[in-house]
Write a structure and sequence with these properties.
The protein has a domain at about 1-150: Immunoglobulin-like (Sandwich). The protein contains 14 helices and 40 strands. The chain has an eight-stranded parallel β-sheet with strand order 25-24-22-19-15-14-13-26. A six-stranded mixed β-sheet has the order 2-1-12-9-8-5. The protein has a six-stranded antiparallel β-sheet with strand order 27-28-29-34-31-32. Bound molecules: ligand MIG. Ligand MIG binds next to loops.
Length: about 675
């Protein structure tokens, strides 16, 4: 049951799709307080847990820290970060009472979940115009599903987006791209996509192409496509202020950009230097921004990643002026402790300064609104511009779309990557822990930069990251580091080849579970407590996940880890794989186990009376045969598995024809219209 309360006159966020009538009064369970801000408080019992908040730092259970929904470009995700790139305002409180709370607002919301007071949740809403939805249900899964029904079906990418993807902020010329693909083919490591980072543009201008480095862009895209490789260019939010640049010139002529208080176009520094931001909160301007993507689609592009759309600001004239004034004041004197730190501080505060978000305005279809009030909407609406444009220009076709900035609502249009992580073991663990909470907030197509985006990775970290990412819908290796991290650059290339082949073998299962989760508003990744609510041990597990209906994973995420403790909430079959055809299996009883896992091995667990359908890997998804499948399973009695499979690219998803029932017992298996056999080792 969902109840809704409204305070003030909230700005439409388009986070939800269902109309729920407004009730008078105050939400049950929470204590409402109206002061300078609105707060909702809740007294937790010692054993209560809190899930949700999507992309954020720290554990799956969010209890113990403060999380602030304020989309920000933050490249150093240390444990003390309160905000990342997203505003995912949904939590589930799980205890004697289990219920969900969704704060529907474009404003900043802070969730102090037992940080100030170990037993208190204090939700503080900066903007007093808001909707709050309370969701009650009979289980965690039920609350989660009701919420997902409220916010609408998650984005479903094309099937090729389940292939392995390679990116690096370094590739520049046509030959750079060719070489990456050539190397992958030479090492026979499967690959489906290569990303174009900002260097493909002319002068960092979105919707342009660098003529010297990529003189035959369209031919390159086609040449790659012929090899089964999709090229995925980046788009940056800031539009360069530059005479002769058509997006800028037309934007000025047609009045598309956000303005300052005096009605001049607001400008700030980002990658290309001075930029304007398109007012994507205005429907017409949003459509106009979406129209720009046609340029790339017409060149054969079928995937895009939108970056810097929090929006990220490097500097404004106002902040620079303050900083230069301080330097002028200090430059002829000897620095002391105070002035030294004051100066450092002044410069470190140049970027993404909350003061700068008060300098410009939106015209939300006639209503003038200062940016800081709707800041969290910007990334969502910019990516929505792209998603809607894709529907206009490529109706009935699924394209790949990723965004860095996000808010709930955007999950209907796009997937996300989790931004600039680092080549840290702790960030591999973070990535594992982010997945179930992202799913709760509707973001099913998600993944982190494999190996770590910043700092140099190493072979062991990359290996463990790949072994985990076999299960993440988005499996993209991306970095800005000095050290190359394409999988063929490491010593034991064969291990990577084996692991990526395992990923490809899993695609029938991953895709099936993903699309079913999207259609039925379920979670593809789940904390164990969602499946084993009555098991007090399962509740506490922070580093194992359920993946779809058959699998539990327990990734290795520690340096020199050659095994780990795993808790089995029921009897399961352990599969230890070295390659697609080389694996061991053993049935283990419910309880705690220590499992050895060499660096060249990945492990997963199959639940009793469940199966996993596998395909034969190929160098790209295009070359795979999804009609001949093998299954591995832990089958004791007659059982069924519903396999979802479709053409992989049209939007005709719900079609009954796409559901195949696989019938299995201990000895044999059968499926009408698919060739299914038991896998032999
Ligand atoms: O300020 O385009 O998160 O993936 O490689 C950095 C360059 C801008 C941030 C993105 C990252 C991308 C990088 N971008």
């Amino acid at each position: 049951m969902i109840t809704r309360f409204q305070y003030g006159h909230p700005i439409r966020t388009d986070s939800i799709i269902k109309h729920i009538p407004i009730e008078e009064g105050y939400p049950k369970h929470l204590v409402y307080e109206d002061g300078e801000k609105i707060t909702f408080t809740y007294e937790m019992k010692p054993q209560d847990m809190v899930y949700g908040l999507g992309e954020n730092m720290r554990g799956i259970n969010k209890r113990g820290f403060t999380y602030i929904s304020r989309c920000v470009d933050n490249a150093i995700h240390t444990e003390d970060c309160h905000s990342l790139y997203a505003a995912h305002n949904f939590i589930i409180i799980y205890g004697i009472e289990t219920f969900g709370v969704f704060i529907d607002t474009a404003g900043i919301v802070s969730y102090d979940i037992g940080e100030t007071d170990i037993d208190q949740i204090i939700i503080t809403c900066d903007d007093k115009d808001l909707n709050i939805y309370m969701i009650e249900g009979k289980s965690l899964k039920d609350v989660a599903k009701q919420f997902r029904q409220l916010i609408g079906r998650s984005y479903i990418p094309p099937k090729w987006a389940f292939g392995y993807q390679q990116s690096r902020w370094k590739y520049k010329t046509e030959n750079d791209f060719r070489e990456i693909v050539r190397q992958y083919k030479e090492h026979a490591i499967p690959l489906d996509a290569v990303y174009l980072d900002i260097d493909y543009m002319d002068n960092y201008q979105s919707f342009t192409i660098h003529k010297d480095n990529l003189p035959h862009f369209e031919e390159l895209i086609q040449e790659m496509k012929n090899q089964g490789i999709h090229m995925v260019p980046i788009i940056d939010a800031g539009i360069k202020v530059q005479d002769g640049y058509h997006v800028y010139e037309n934007g000025v002529k047609e009045n598309r950009f956000c303005k300052d208080k005096d009605g001049h176009f607001f400008r700030c520094g980002v990658w290309p230097g001075y930029c304007h931001f398109v007012d994507v909160l205005n429907t017409q301007h949003r459509n106009w921004f979406g129209d720009q993507y046609k340029f790339l689609l017409d060149k054969g592009i079928d995937g895009i990643w939108n970056d810097m759309n929090e929006p990220s600001i490097f500097y404004t004239d106002e902040r620079l002026k303050e900083a230069y004034e301080l330097v002028d004041k200090l430059k002829n004197s000897e620095l002391n402790l105070n002035t030294y730190f004051q100066m450092c501080d002044e410069f470190s505060k140049l970027s993404n300064n909350p003061k700068d978000y008060k300098l410009f305005y939106h015209d939300i279809d006639g209503q003038k609104v200062r940016h800081d009030k709707v800041h969290n909407l910007y990334g969502y609406f910019l990516t929505r511009a792209a998603g809607e444009a894709f529907e206009r220009f490529r109706p009935h076709k699924r394209l790949l779309l990723l965004s860095r900035g996000s808010m709930i609502g955007m999950h209907r249009y796009s997937g996300i990557w989790t931004g600039d992580n680092l080549a840290w073991w702790s960030h591999l663990k973070l990535c594992i822990q982010q997945m179930p909470n992202l799913n709760l907030c509707g973001f099913l197509y998600a993944g982190g930069d494999l190996g770590g985006f910043g700092n140099n990775t190493n072979e062991e970290l990359m290996t463990r990251w790949v072994q985990f990412a076999i299960f993440t819908p988005l499996m993209r290796n991306h970095s800005q580091s000095e050290r190359a991290q394409e999988l063929y650059t490491f010593k034991n290339t064969n291990t990577f080849k084996n692991m990526i082949e395992i990923r490809y073998a899993f695609i029938p299962y991953l895709y099936s579970e993903f699309v079913k989760a999207a259609i039925h508003n379920d979670c593809y990744f789940r904390a164990l407590s969602f499946d084993y609510e009555n098991d007090p041990q399962a509740r506490l597990i922070e580093d194992q996940l359920m993946v779809g209906e058959s699998i539990m994973i327990a990734p290795i995420y520690e340096q020199n880890g050659r095994g780990r403790y795993v808790y089995l909430p029921e009897n399961m079959k352990l599969i230890k794989m070295r390659s697609f055809n080389d694996y061991d299996e053993i049935i283990l009883p419910k309880g705690h186990h220590y499992i050895q896992v060499n660096l060249n091995e990945m492990i997963f667990f199959i639940k009793e009376n469940h199966i996993v359908p596998l395909a034969k890997p190929a160098l790209t998804t295009k070359d795979m045969d999804f009609n001949h499948l093998e299954i591995i399973g832990y089958v004791k009695e007659n059982t069924q598995y519903i396999l979802y499979d479709d053409d992989g690219y049209t939007t005709n998803i719900d079609n009954k024809e796409y559901s195949y029932t696989i019938y299995v017992n201990q000895y044999s298996c059968y499926c009408q219209n698919k060739h299914i056999t038991y896998k032999k080792k």
